[in-house]
Design goal:
318 residues; alpha/beta; DHBP synthase; Rossmann fold; 11-stranded mixed beta sheet; 4-stranded parallel beta sheet; 19% strand; binds threonylcarbamoyladenylate; binds magnesium ion
Length: 318
């Protein structure tokens, strides 16, 4: 029997028994466990081969549930939660003592969000505990946006992948923390900087490890295919540097019409939203083709383009 299933009751049962279940969200699939079960949380870290210094995101069903895990909610956090939850926004807030240290890597803050996926909202509503869920991929590799991606990574390690179809947004949530009461962006993501700034004003970005020990895990190389990957403005020019090699290209909207090259167009309509929802599936597909190189076209540096460039940059060899 396939481990990919739509059976929410079974997911409830497994999670209650301290097992892991891969869950759908609107961003990417998560590898979920009960935040209060030491066994489940250890299992998440070992399955992903994730270093313990990298804290997990806690998923809750309602704003009410937030009060059980944090001690203080800055005014601007309230505005952001009201504007974007359920949705692709993770808030990093002061945790209370009920949140185990292993979830937060010993930090006094906890990252939390209400995901916007009907299946996972229904699941969370039936559980008496929140779910810790990092992206359901081995540490450093491409995040999964379809149940099949998770199965390829973990079919021998977990008992169930809760099927919620393809992830609509396709890249991870945007992470906002607070210094004093001021919001700081730790990770670009599926919610655009412009949308956030429309609610709380200009935001400082600290999404590089060297800038922000506050945001561990913002590693320069991450989200990476096994195939060497390049991110460039001019794909045709880059192709010429790799003659004789087996090349795959990832373009935004316009075909290059070059023979003998495997090409994926992310959105023929030039929609960044559509491109984001297709991005990781395209990277998974190219990475499975035994290519010598993958060449990706840079997106315009605004909106979701900025977030996609961030991920593609971290996918490249430097
Ligand atoms: O869209 C998402 O956020 C997905 C879905 C499954 O919800 N989850 C996800 O989790 O991307 P993960 O573990 O792949 O990324 C979590 C990021 C890490 O980079 C980690 O450093 C950061 O969240 N993080 C977690 N707790 C933090 C904290 N207390 N302070 C700063 N950053 C934190
Ligand atoms: Mg991840």
């Amino acid at each position: 029997m396939s481990i990919i299933s739509k059976d929410i009751e079974k997911a409830v049962q497994l999670l209650t028994d301290a097992q892991l279940v891969a869950i759908p969200t609107e961003t990417v699939y998560g590898l979920a466990g009960n935040i209060y079960s030491e066994k489940a949380i250890h299992h998440i870290f070992s399955t992903k081969k994730r270093p313990f210094f990298n804290p997990l995101i806690v998923h809750i069903p309602t704003v009410k549930a937030l009060e059980k895990i944090v001690t203080h909610i800055p005014e601007k956090a309230k505005l952001l939660a009201a504007a974007f939850w359920p949705g692709s926004l993770t808030l990093v807030l002061k945790k209370n003592s009920s949140v185990p240290d292993i979830i937060t890597a010993g930090k006094d803050t906890v990252a939390v969000r209400i995901p916007n996926h009907p299946v996972t909202l229904a699941l969370l509503a039936q559980l008496p505990f929140p779910l810790a869920a990092p992206s359901a991929n081995p540490f450093g590799s491409i995040s999964p946006t379809k149940p099949e991606h998770v199965a390829r990574y973990f079919k021998n390690d977990i008992q169930m992948i809760l099927d919620g179809g393809s992830c609509a947004n396709g890249i991870e949530s945007t992470i906002i923390g607070f210094e004093k009461e001021t919001p700081i962006l730790y990770r670009l993501g599926a919610l655009t900087l412009e949308d956030i700034e429309a609610v709380v004003g200009k935001i400082t970005i600290k999404n590089k490890e060297e800038e922000s020990p506050e945001a561990p895990g913002m590693l320069a190389r991450h989200y990476a295919p096994k195939t060497s990957t390049f991110l460039v403005q001019d794909v045709a020019a880059e192709i010429k540097k790799h003659t004789g090699k087996k090349i795959g290209v990832l373009v935004f909207k316009t075909t290059l019409n070059i023979p003998d090259i495997i090409e994926i167009i992310l959105s023929r309509d030039g929609s960044m939203q559509e491109a984001a929802s297709n991005l990781y599936a395209a990277m998974h597909a190219l990475d499975a083709q035994q290519l010598d190189v993958i060449i990706a076209e840079k997106f315009p540096e605004f909106g979701l383009g900025k977030s996609m460039n961030d991920r593609l940059q971290r996918a490249t060899f430097k």
